[in-house]
TrEMBL record:
<keyword id="KW-1133">Transmembrane helix</keyword>
<feature type="transmembrane region" description="Helical">
    <location>
        <begin position="206"/>
        <end position="226"/>
    </location>
</feature>
<dbReference type="InterPro" id="IPR044219">
    <property type="entry name" value="ACER_plant"/>
</dbReference>
<keyword id="KW-0479">Metal-binding</keyword>
<feature type="transmembrane region" description="Helical">
    <location>
        <begin position="171"/>
        <end position="191"/>
    </location>
</feature>
<dbReference type="GO" id="GO:0098542">
    <property type="term" value="P:defense response to other organism"/>
</dbReference>
<dbReference type="GO" id="GO:0002238">
    <property type="term" value="P:response to molecule of fungal origin"/>
</dbReference>
<dbReference type="GO" id="GO:0005794">
    <property type="term" value="C:Golgi apparatus"/>
</dbReference>
<dbReference type="GO" id="GO:0010508">
    <property type="term" value="P:positive regulation of autophagy"/>
</dbReference>
<dbReference type="InterPro" id="IPR008901">
    <property type="entry name" value="ACER"/>
</dbReference>
<dbReference type="GO" id="GO:0016020">
    <property type="term" value="C:membrane"/>
</dbReference>
<dbReference type="GO" id="GO:0006672">
    <property type="term" value="P:ceramide metabolic process"/>
</dbReference>
<dbReference type="GO" id="GO:0006914">
    <property type="term" value="P:autophagy"/>
</dbReference>
<dbReference type="GO" id="GO:0031667">
    <property type="term" value="P:response to nutrient levels"/>
</dbReference>
<dbReference type="GO" id="GO:0009651">
    <property type="term" value="P:response to salt stress"/>
</dbReference>
<comment type="similarity">
    <text>Belongs to the alkaline ceramidase family.</text>
</comment>
<feature type="binding site">
    <location>
        <position position="79"/>
    </location>
    <ligand>
        <name>Zn(2+)</name>
    </ligand>
</feature>
Length: 255
């Protein structure tokens, strides 16, 4: 904790602290950079949500963008307070979000349409209840990684069956952002003692948030493109201000 600044939220009760000095800038924000670095995630999810609603994409994508925003807000609460309850508001939405990705990825070829959403909903609800009473620690990370790995085969299948160069480029940015972000997260966790002695802390965990904000946006945009192709909506990748990609569709008049 920085000298002369007291903690508004009281003692730390979360199971994880990142490599950032607590309450260095305000008594109301425990980890300043790790808190504000979630803002890009909220803004990008909002842009994606507006595009999904404006072009009347399936509701699943609106829910997906909203889940991104909920996760970013939960992460802000967690890093601002470093309290166990707020930590759950970060970790539980992470699991809910990846379950939603699994539904979007696998549902098009699922023959029994009601079974998958029912199972995923019950799984997410059960996890939330158990997670509210138990502290998983490393178990949470292992569980989350396993869920992420289950999505990879389907994402790869979508990639190899997509011929559009611009869409493939978005998929490549998805891979690049998660790799670079993971390196930032790893260095922040493993080399904290060394980094703390540097004149300037690079704020690896905050960079992880920024890269994962773009990672989620790229994932959502790529999946929207693939789903539009499946529905015959003639999707095209357009760049907002020449930088930020989004999907533009042309639905048949009957739809």
């Amino acid at each position: 904790m920085a000298d002369g600044i007291s903690s508004f939220w009281g003692p730390v009760t979360s199971t994880i602290e990142c490599c950032e000095e607590n309450y260095a800038y305000s008594s109301y924000i425990a980890e300043f950079y790790n808190t504000i670095s979630n803002v890009p995630g909220i803004l990008l999810a909002l842009i994606g949500l507006v595009n999904a609603l404006r072009q009347r994409f399936e509701k699943r994508f609106s829910i997906l963008h909203i889940s991104n925003m909920i996760l970013a807000i939960g992460s802000m609460l967690y890093h601002a307070t470093l309290q166990h309850v707020q930590q759950q508001s970060d970790e539980t939405p992470m699991v809910w979000e990846i379950l939603l990705y699994m539904y979007i990825l696998y549902s098009p070829d699922w023959h029994y349409r009601s079974t998958m959403p029912t199972f995923l909903f019950l799984y997410g609800a059960a996890f939330a209840v158990v997670h509210a009473f138990l502290r998983f620690g490393i178990g949470f990370k292992v569980h989350y990684v396993i869920l992420c790995l289950l999505c990879i085969p389907r994402m790869y299948k979508y990639y190899i069956h997509t011929e559009d160069i611009a869409a493939k480029r978005i998929a490549k940015w998805y891979v690049a952002t998660i790799l670079v972000g993971s390196v930032c997260w790893f260095c922040d966790r493993v080399f904290c003692k060394t980094i703390s002695q540097w004149p300037v802390n690079p704020q690896g965990h905050a960079l992880w948030h920024v890269f994962m904000s773009f990672n989620s946006y790229c994932a959502n945009t790529f999946l929207m493109f693939c789903r539009a192709q499946q529905r015959g909506w003639n999707p095209k990748v357009i760049y907002f201000l020449g930088v930020l990609p989004y999907v533009k569709i042309e639905k048949p008049k009957a739809q």
